[in-house]
Amino acid sequence: MNKHAIAVIPGDGIGQEVVPEALKVLETAAQIHGGIAFEWTTFPWGCEYYLQHETMMPSDGIETLKSFEQIFLGAVGMPGLVPDHISLGGLLLKIRQELEQSINVRPAKLLCGMKSPLADPQSFDILVVRENSEGEYSDVGGRVHNGPDEMALQTSVFTRKACARVMEYALSVAQRRRRHVTSATKSNGLAHSMPFWDDVFRDVSQAYPDIQTTSMHIDALAALFVMKPHVLDVVVASNLFGDILSDIGGAIMGSIGIAPAANLNVERKYPSMFEPVHGSAPDIAGKGIANPIGQIWTAKMMLDFLGYEDIASVVLYGIEETLVENVKTADLGGSATMTEVTERVIAHMKAAA
Ligand code: ATP
Ligand code: MG
């Protein structure tokens, strides 16, 4: 029996509702597999914790998390009550940085049973791999001068190490997919950072002769996501470009309520963190109507990362069969409750086993 110690942080709003649903699915996956045992340890960190303790997590929180294999997170945020820089900065960003989760992975796939907002969508299956630690979102810069000459400088930081790491990850996952990696660039506008990014991509690609590589300017690539997403396989991008592309990817899938994500420490020195794209959705929290699919698909990504790709695909099968039979929550135009959706996903997984 392979035991896995997982830290669970449900967080705020619908995070507290959808996380237990996804844990039921993971328990079902473990049962079907027969050789996996999960040990869940739940931490009540987030904005409610902040309102009581004036901190989003205890001061030894990061050290505590280091003793787990992976982190499974719902959502954090209480708009209006806790400012974003506290809720995000005090938990999510802190974990991502201190546990060196430098790669953000977001699938954009048209699931069976989903309707894309694109007019004539062919099925598509893209994996956006985003550099998550540096690039355009660095803290280097500032404001200079006053009055009419005032200006702001924002410096991007691109290191060969971080660029190569995210590119190597993208190229190696492409080997288990359709063997094509598209790199997002803008070397015709950003004179220093992007030619460097392109050089590193060319260098790193040498070691993957079996992978077809393409570099595309971010503007043309964003248009391609909307016009012909089916031609794309793996897309590797810097922090800013990856942020934008993964949001477009989420949009063309049909609903933010289904979009999954992972923040990976690919060296496996520290735990990685699996959290859906959506936030705490205070407008629908506590009503039992949140779509659990984003969290469940995120659980599937955790299974993949733990090396259980076969059982992970059974989870995705359960999700798709549920969508095909039209058991959908309100965000997808249906009238099913959150638990009804989870129950159908589990029933389909069991039927397939
Ligand atoms: P954050 O700043 O934490 O990312 P946000 O304000 O960007 O949050 P969300 O909390 O994701 O956004 O909510 C955006 C909209 O999508 C809301 O109307 C919310 O109800 C809806 N939504 C988000 N997640 C889900 C879900 N799982 N099921 C149904 N609706 C959802
Ligand atoms: Mg948001």
TrEMBL record:
<keyword id="KW-0560">Oxidoreductase</keyword>
<keyword id="KW-0464">Manganese</keyword>
<feature type="domain" description="Isopropylmalate dehydrogenase-like">
    <location>
        <begin position="5"/>
        <end position="345"/>
    </location>
</feature>
<dbReference type="InterPro" id="IPR019818">
    <property type="entry name" value="IsoCit/isopropylmalate_DH_CS"/>
</dbReference>
<dbReference type="GO" id="GO:0046553">
    <property type="term" value="F:D-malate dehydrogenase (decarboxylating) (NAD+) activity"/>
</dbReference>
<dbReference type="GO" id="GO:0050319">
    <property type="term" value="F:tartrate decarboxylase activity"/>
</dbReference>
<comment type="similarity">
    <text>Belongs to the isocitrate and isopropylmalate dehydrogenases family.</text>
</comment>
<dbReference type="InterPro" id="IPR050501">
    <property type="entry name" value="ICDH/IPMDH"/>
</dbReference>
<keyword id="KW-0479">Metal-binding</keyword>
<dbReference type="Pfam" id="PF00180">
    <property type="entry name" value="Iso_dh"/>
</dbReference>
<keyword id="KW-0520">NAD</keyword>
<protein>
    <recommendedName>
        <fullName>D-malate dehydrogenase (decarboxylating)</fullName>
        <ecNumber>1.1.1.83</ecNumber>
    </recommendedName>
</protein>
<dbReference type="InterPro" id="IPR024084">
    <property type="entry name" value="IsoPropMal-DH-like_dom"/>
</dbReference>
<keyword id="KW-0456">Lyase</keyword>
<dbReference type="InterPro" id="IPR011829">
    <property type="entry name" value="TTC_DH"/>
</dbReference>
<dbReference type="GO" id="GO:0009027">
    <property type="term" value="F:tartrate dehydrogenase activity"/>
</dbReference>
